[in-house]
Structures are given as C-alpha cells and as structure tokens.
C-alpha cells in the first residue's frame, strides 16, 4: 500500500522554523514500522512545499497519516487533513501524534477517518493491513474510527521493553532534507531517542503520565545501531530525561567510545540527576556532550515545590558549575507565572544577570493537556484557542495588564540576546539559544510582545487580567505529596527540597568568567 505521512507547518508559531526545524522523528519511526510491506513517503510541509505540488508529482496515496505533534499545531494539522481530503477525496486519513495521544479535545473539524493514540507504528500497520484486506476497521487499543474518537482507548503502562522492540526509524526517506534540519546552533542536526518516560511528577509535564512513570530504555546494542545510522555529527537526544539510570548511561558512554562514534550531543538533564553522579556526566562530556537543557524553572523553593519539581534552587547553581567545569554549555529554562507582578519579573532579570547560564530561555507557565496542572486549572482558562498552548502565551488571567505582561516576557528574551556572552564562551556563539542567521529571533521577540491581544476570550470571560486581590495562580492547590510509583518502575524521586528561597546577591554586576 502507498502510505503518505505528513508533518504540518505552523507559519504563526512563535518558535518559528527559522529558529528550529528538526526532522520529524515520529514519522520516521512510523515509516520504519510500515516498511518493507508498504511503500511510504514522508512529506514535510515545512520544507517540501504544499501538498498540491506533490500530488502532481506522485502517484496517489492509498492511506494518508497527518501528525498533530503539538496542541498549538491543531489548527494547521486540521488544515492539512482538509487539504489532503481535497486532493485525494477517497483516500482514508488517519491522525496521530502527541496531542491526540493525550486528549480528544480540539479534534473536531478534522477531515479524518481514524485516530491513533500513543506509539503509532503497531496500530498504523494494523490499519494499513485491514484497509488492504478491504474490511471495516474496528476500534482496538490506540486506534479508533474518527467518529468515535472520544471512546479511543489510550493510556496504560507500556511494557518495559516497548521502546526496545520498536523497529528502527527509517531515516532514508528524508535524505533530501537531511542537511536542512537544524536546531538553533546545531546545523545540521539529527534527532534520536534512547529512552522515554520519567519517574518524576512535575505538574506542568505530561511525559511522566504517558508512561505512568515507567522509564523505558533501549539496550546498548540498539543505541549503537541507531547512532551508527546517523550521518550528522550534531545529535539532539530527545529523551525526556536521559540520566535516570546512571549505570546504564555510564555503560552506554563506554560503548559509544569503544565503537568510535564521534558526535556532539545536546540533551535534557535534571540538575539533581547530574549532581548525583558527576562521574557519569564527566564520561558523557568526554564522548561529546556539548550542551544540556536544564529545566531550572525557578529560583524560589516555593515555586519549585508548587510545580512538584523536586529540585532546589541551589542545585541549579551547583549543576551549572558542574557542567561548566566539564566544558558543557547550559541552556536553562525559566517559567514566568501569569500571576507575577513587576517585582517578580525584576527578580528573574537579576537572577539571569547573576547566574552563569550560557543560554537562558523563558516560557509562560502553560497547563498542557495531559498534565496535572491542566486537570486542576483548565476550568479557569481565559481562552479556548489551542494556538495559545505554545508556552509563550498565557491561558490564565495575568496580574499585570496583558500588554505589560507580554512586554516583560519580550524584554526577558531581548535582554538575554543582548547580554554579554557569559557562562562558557565558545568561539563567539550567541548567548541566546534560539539562534538564527537572519532576524528570526527579533521576529520571535516581536511576536511575544504582541501577545494574544486579538484572541477571543472564552464565553463568559470578561477580563484577561486578575482583579486586584484575586487568588494568584501560585496559590492554587497542588498535590501535597508525590504520587506513589506503580510497582516495579524506576527510581522514586528524591523528596522535594525545602531550601530557603535563593536570592541573587544585591550587587547587579555579573561575575564574569573567562573561558
Ligand atoms: C524534540 C521536541 C521538539 C523540537 C522539534 C521536534 C520536531 N521534530 O520538529 C522543538 C525544540 C523544535 C520543539 C518545539 C516545541 N515543542 Co516540543 N518536543 C520535542 C520532544 C522533546 C521530542 C519529540 C520527539 O521527537 N519524540 C519522539 C517520538 C518518536 O515520539 P512521539 O512524538 O511520541 O511519536 C509517536 C506517537 O506520538 C505516534 N505519532 C506521532 N506522530 C504521528 C502521526 C501519525 C499519522 C500517527 C498515526 C501516529 C503518530 O507515533 C510515534 C512513533 O511511535 C517532545 C517530548 C516527547 N517526549 O515527545 C516535546 C513536545 C512534543 N513539545 C512540546 C511543546 C509544547 C513544544 C512547543 C509548542 C513549545 C516549546 N517552546 O518547546 C514547541 C512548538 C514548535 C512549533 N514550531 O510549533 C510538548 C507538546 C505538548 C502539547 N500538548 O502540545 C512536548 C510533548 C514536550 C512537553 N513539554 O510536554 N519540540
Ligand atoms: S523532570 Fe519533570 S519536566 Fe522533566 S520529564 Fe520528568 S516530569 Fe517532565
């Protein structure tokens, strides 16, 4: 069967394709599962042009899959299904991806026939086989006809071996775009995933809930096979948290070194997992760990506890020092809360001036679907627009007037880009993470500053600003204790630290560090 897999393009995204355009790894996994039984093509709407042009060049597909990777891409994915149906009216369309995996909300209006939730390879193979047989397709776990999408069976704890059992991603189908995929300063870049899931329970994160806190890993041999298949030197490891099993990571680093695999890695790491095993980070620095993204989130214990993060402000400082001592650059992300006032923003500005973060980045606290935070707070959202779930907009009323709030967010980004390059100075690389040759970063700042002032508010919501004295978001109830881990899953998070809030020193002079 001829299968066409489509990755959407969001021209209105704050984080534009000029700042990051990564290979659609999920579709390469699907292609790996479908081939060799089926003839698969991947169409990346960001690089391969409109579907119409492809329709003229290629034989009509017999099954079309459209990805809905983010909630903020629901609108453009919906448009892609409609365009696919216009071009090939009789061809079944299936949607899948992170968004339909965690929720059936906002899935109305798609020109789709089926929905897949969770790991897509197995249900997609099943769907293709059933369609080829010409029979009707009954709902199975992870797959449902579009009309009964609300009843789609999703969730459950995946088998411990499930990641290891997946077919290899098929990277050959996007060979024509290979050199165009990049992530900020990593040009070109390839993506790989060596583990999935996380045993921690941050309330703004859906990833631990997707595996029910089970930590899934690939065997060392499997990892070596995947890395050997990658031509690019820059590898963005998209594991939710790679260093949960330090023994395995040590073994992996040794095996990568022994195999002579020479790569430059960017990956996500928690500050506490890094600090717990500096020897593991040291080994990874030796085999090519170039930069890490740490979710610093906040430098106050109260906010960190409120997020259920399980780390303390001092750990951010200690981890930055550890990474720098090994020559590893640090991107740290900080979350701004809608209930912040000017003093809170001023405090974050001082924090950034003082911390030796190489590349600071900022997001607005966003209750993504499939998170505890979403479940606890969605009734109070000011808008129903899925576009706003991009971590740069607020779904809650703000303490500051909206223009002011977005202005402060834009100022944070702007200040981060124009500050001297502190932290580790690597050959004049930009201090900001979202780096582009043109003015894409300037445009991002301008878009953040514009905010969502034109976006309609929910029926019945009359203001996007918190009335004076109203309950701040920071005061909303959060679970009192981490949920118990299901039997047999990975390490239980360390207890939430109750360190006193970290204060930057009164002097605003940033301590410089020479490389
Ligand atoms: C790498 C990454 C990025 C990269 C780009 C990835 C890319 N290829 O373009 C960058 C950094 C650019 C990025 C940006 C953003 N990201 Co991001 N990203 C990820 C990350 C870490 C890994 C994605 C990945 O490759 N996963 C590996 C693949 C194999 O897994 P998978 O997606 O689960 O795919 C399987 C199934 O979903 C299914 N499937 C997937 N697609 C399809 C399609 C069909 C047809 C079918 C049938 C099945 C199917 O089968 C796949 C194979 O088993 C995820 C976290 C995660 N664990 O997934 C976040 C994640 C997807 N990102 C997220 C977010 C919020 C964003 C941003 C909106 C915000 C931000 N500032 O980061 C932006 C949006 C950018 C934009 N322009 O619109 C959220 C999405 C939550 C949501 N509800 O929207 C996630 C889940 C992280 C989180 N914080 O919770 N991201
Ligand atoms: S540490 Fe928190 S934010 Fe990071 S993957 Fe785990 S639960 Fe999500």
Question: Can you put this structure into words, describing what you see?
Answer:
There is one protein chain. By secondary structure, the protein is an alpha/beta fold. It has 2 domains: 2-151, Rossmann fold (3-Layer(aba) Sandwich); 181-455, TIM Barrel (Alpha-Beta Barrel), CATH 3.20.20.70. The protein contains 16 helices and 16 strands. The strands form 4 sheets. A 6-stranded mixed β-sheet has the order 3-1-4-5-6-7, sandwiched between helices. Helix 3 links the parallel strand 4 and strand 5 (93-96). Helix 1 packs across helix 5. The protein is globular, with a radius of gyration of 23 Å. 47% of the residues are buried. The model is unreliable at 474-515 (pLDDT under 50).
Q: What is the residue-averaged pLDDT?
A: 88
Q: Tell me about the biggest sheet?
A: 6 strands, mixed
Name of the CATH homologous superfamily of the largest domain:
Aldolase class I
Roughly how many Å is the radius of gyration?
Answer: 23 Å
Q: What is the general shape?
A: globular
Distance between the termini: 56 Å
Number of helices: 16
CATH class of the largest domain: Alpha Beta
Strands, total number: 16
Helix content: 25-40%
Largest sheet: spatial strand order: 3-1-4-5-6-7
User: Please, how many domains?
Assistant: 2
Alpha-beta content class: alpha/beta
Here the CATH topology of the largest domain equals TIM Barrel
Strand residue percentage:
5-15%
Q: Which architecture of the largest domain does the CATH hierarchy give at level 2?
A: Alpha-Beta Barrel
Bound molecules: cobalamin, iron/sulfur cluster
């Amino acid at each position: 069967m001829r299968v066409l897999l489509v990755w959407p393009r969001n021209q209105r995204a704050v984080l534009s394709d000029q700042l990051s355009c990564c290979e659609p790894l999920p579709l390469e996994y699907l292609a790996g599962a479908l081939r060799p039984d089926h003839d698969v093509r991947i169409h990346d709407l960001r690089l391969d042009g409109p579907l119409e042009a492809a329709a003229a060049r290629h034989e009509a597909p017999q099954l079309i899959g459209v990805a809905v990777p983010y909630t903020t891409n629901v609108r453009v994915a919906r448009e892609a299904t409609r365009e696919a149906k216009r071009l090939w009216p009789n061809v079944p369309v299936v949607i899948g991806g992170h968004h339909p995996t965690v929720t059936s909300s906002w899935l109305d209006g798609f020109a789709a026939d089926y929905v897949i939730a969770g790991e897509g390879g197995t249900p997609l193979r099943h769907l293709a086989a059933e369609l080829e047989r010409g029979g009707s397709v009954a709902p199975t776990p992870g797959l449902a006809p579009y009309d009964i999408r609300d009843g789609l069976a999703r969730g459950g704890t995946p088998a411990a071996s499930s990641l290891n059992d997946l077919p290899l991603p098929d990277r050959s189908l996007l060979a024509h775009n290979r050199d165009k995929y990049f992530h900020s300063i990593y040009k070109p870049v390839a993506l790989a995933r060596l583990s999935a899931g996380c045993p921690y329970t941050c309330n703004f994160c859906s990833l631990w809930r997707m595996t029910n806190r089970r930590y899934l890993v690939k065997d060392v041999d499997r990892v070596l096979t995947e890395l050997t298949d990658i031509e690019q030197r820059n590898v963005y490891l998209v594991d939710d948290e790679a260093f949960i099993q330090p023994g395995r990571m040590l073994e992996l680093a040794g095996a990568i070194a022994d195999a002579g695999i020479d790569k430059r890695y960017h990956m996500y790491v928690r500050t506490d997992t890094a600090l717990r095993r500096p020897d593991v980070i040291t080994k990874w620095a030796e085999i090519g760990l170039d930069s890490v993204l740490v979710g610093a989130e906040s430098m106050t214990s109260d906010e960190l506890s409120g997020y259920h993060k399980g780390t303390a402000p001092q750990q951010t400082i200690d981890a930055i020092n550890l990474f720098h001592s090994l020559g590893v650059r640090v991107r740290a992300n900080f979350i701004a809360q809608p209930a912040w006032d000017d003093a809170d923003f001023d405090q974050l500005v001082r924090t950034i001036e003082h911390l030796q973060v190489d590349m600071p980045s900022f997001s607005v606290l966003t209750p993504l679907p499939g998170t505890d935070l979403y479940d606890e707070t969605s009734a109070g959202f000011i808008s129903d627009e899925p576009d706003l779930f991009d971590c740069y907009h607020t779904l809650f009323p703000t303490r500051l007037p909206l223009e002011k709030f977005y202005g402060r967010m834009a100022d944070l980004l702007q200040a981060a880009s124009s500050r001297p390059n502190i932290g580790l100075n690597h050959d004049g690389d930009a201090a900001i993470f979202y780096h582009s040759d043109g003015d894409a970063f300037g445009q991002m700042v301008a878009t953040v500053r514009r905010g969502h002032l034109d976006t309609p508010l929910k029926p019945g919501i009359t203001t996007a600003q918190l009335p004076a004295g109203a309950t701040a978001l920071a005061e909303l109830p959060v679970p009192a204790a981490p949920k118990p881990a299901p039997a047999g899953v990975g390490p239980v998070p360390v207890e939430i630290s109750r360190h006193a809030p970290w204060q930057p020193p009164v002097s605003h002079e940033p301590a410089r560090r020479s490389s």
